[in-house]
Amino acid sequence: MTERLEEAGAFVAERVATPEVAMVLGSGLGAFADTLGDAKVIPYVEIPHMPLSEVAGHAGNLVVGTCQGKPVAAMQGRFHLYEGYTVNEVVFGVRLMAALGARTLIVTNAAGGISSSLAPGDLMVISDQLNLTGSSLVGESVAAGPRFVDMTEAFDPTLRGVAIEVAEAQGVSLAEGVYAGLLGPAYETPAEVRMLRTLGADAVGMSTVLEVIAARQQGMRVLGISCITNLASGISGAPLSHEEVTETAAAVKPRFEGLLNGVMERL
Ligand code: HPA
Fold it and tell me: What is the distance in angstroms between the CA of the first residue and the CA of the last residue of the chain?
């Protein structure tokens, strides 16, 4: 694992400047990478040992450039357990960006809203997570970072505060809540959504939670932003579809990009 990361890191480091901030851009949110200044696009296929991403709405590039004058590495497309990737593959990109020198991770996703205060099109800053994927950073350990990762305040309180201040200054509403990450790829049943609500989840998705554990293992501070693309299963009674997810994410794009830019300005 460590050797593969070093090879991938050396390959990328030869081509780009050291990033301060790492980003993972979720379903329908990848276009933010196109707004980076002086961007260098490195397709995942070119990076040694990097898995390839397959889901529609995910591009599959590491884009390194600047945002508000700060060097950023952004993953346009991520890896999901439900695609059959191993945990080490799912978190490879985050570990790579940490190895390149990024000390902050901004992780984003599309999610279903469970809390009655969430509606499609809302943005939610993640206050905490429930890892319900049934997996974790099992298997081979990485040389850097503890085996037993502390997950207290996994989502940096200062960064959450910054995001909320930025949203207020921009006059956009920003919710705050707990993100539950499930294996997928089927959407939840209404009974499962009721269970998740009882467990304290405000939103549900199929990504993010393992990446956050990997980032915390590397000592990165983490900001998580969910784009609520739909009401979770059973809440409205309407069927869920990936098209709805990507369409809503696209509609949220200006607010999402405004928020990210505002946060980047204050980092
Ligand atoms: N459930 C799981 N993952 C999702 C959802 C959902 O409702 N919306 C977007 N990703």
Answer: 31
User: Which is the catalytic residue, given 20, 50, 83, 192?
Assistant: 83
83, 126, 187, 236: which to mutate for ligand 1, most atoms within 8 A of CB? Answer: 187
Q: Is 83 a catalytic residue?
A: yes
User: Strand, coil or helix: what is 256?
Assistant: helix
pLDDT tens digit sequence for 84-142: 999 999 999 999 999 999 999 999 999 999 999 999 999 999 999 999 999 999 987 77
How far is 28 from 110, CA to CA, in rounded Å?
A: 8
**How close is the Cα of 241 to the center of ligand 1, in Å?**
9
User: How high does pLDDT run on average in the chain?
Assistant: 94
- Asked if residue 166 has pLDDT above 90, the reply is yes
Indicate whether residue 226 lines ligand 1 (CB < 6 A): no
Q: What pLDDT is attached to residue 93?
A: 96
Q: Please report the pLDDT score of residue 105 as a whole number.
A: 98
Query: How distant is the alpha carbon of residue 267 from its chain centre?
Result: 18
Q: Is the pLDDT of residue 244 over 80?
A: yes
How many angstroms separate the CA atoms of 29 and 5, rounded? 26
110 an active-site residue?
Answer: yes
In angstroms, the CA 78 to CA 58 distance is 7
Q: Phi and psi at residue 260, in whole multiples of 5°?
A: -60, -45
49 is catalytic: no
Contact partners, residue 258, CB within 8 Å, separation at least 6: 170, 172
Residues 6 or more apart in contact with residue 176 via CB below 8 angstroms? 124, 125, 126, 127, 160, 164
Per-residue pLDDT at 54: 62
Residue 97 catalytic? no
Q: What is the pTM of this model?
A: 0.96
